[in-house]
Amino acid sequence: MVFLKKILVTTDLSDFSLAAMEYATSFGTLYTSRLYLLYVLDGREGHHGKEGPPKNEEEARKNLEEFVHANVPADTRITLVVKKGVAAQEVRRFAEEEGIDLIVIATHGRTGLRHMLLGSVAERIVRYSGIPVLTVKPHPFRESILQEEDVEKELHLR
Fold it and tell me: What percent of the chain is helix, strand and coil (3-state, nearest 5)?
């Protein structure tokens, strides 16, 4: 039997990561798990990430607290964590050090050239982590990928 005592959910503070929070809090409730919400502040010199990222760990922690207050039920057992470094490496390192049982991460749904150029933090975590990883597509992507009409058309039901 699988026991999920510690669940790590990652966030970039975007609405995309809310899908991962939804799954993590559901599993957390089911297994009475401790949730860890991890935000990684990019520590690379000269990196200019998405518009308006936190500039330091204190600002990142404040933004993380606001994100939780706005999006996570108040009775959720959650520990907020801010790390500085390369996201995929810091997620794996934290998960191993804390004895995490499951990592939950949202994907941004990038494909093609954009995916090749930007890479994927989720993909690197899945590829190199020894800990099980649940990747979650945000709702808009899940809904746009496969429609009931598409299935019916492919199966020649219409």
Answer: 45, 20, 35
Contact partners, residue 138, CB within 8 Å, separation at least 6: 15, 16, 18, 19, 106, 107, 108, 109
Residues 6+ apart with CB under 8 A from 33: 4, 5, 6, 7, 27, 77, 101
Residues facing residue 104 across a β-bridge: 9, 134
Please name the amino acid found at residue 106: A
Question: If you search the block for the tokens 């039997």, which residue do you land on?
Answer: 1
CATH number at residue 139: 3.40.50.620
pLDDT per residue, tens digit, the chain (158 aa), is 889 999 999 999 988 889 999 999 999 999 999 999 999 998 654 444 445 678 899 999 999 999 999 999 888 999 999 999 999 999 999 999 999 999 999 987 655 555 444 458 888 899 899 999 999 987 655 454 455 565 566 555 55
Structural domain span for residue 36: 6-154
Q: What is the pTM of this model?
A: 0.79
Domain count, the chain: 1
Assigned domain for 85 exists:
yes
Q: How far apart are the first and last CA of the chain?
A: 43
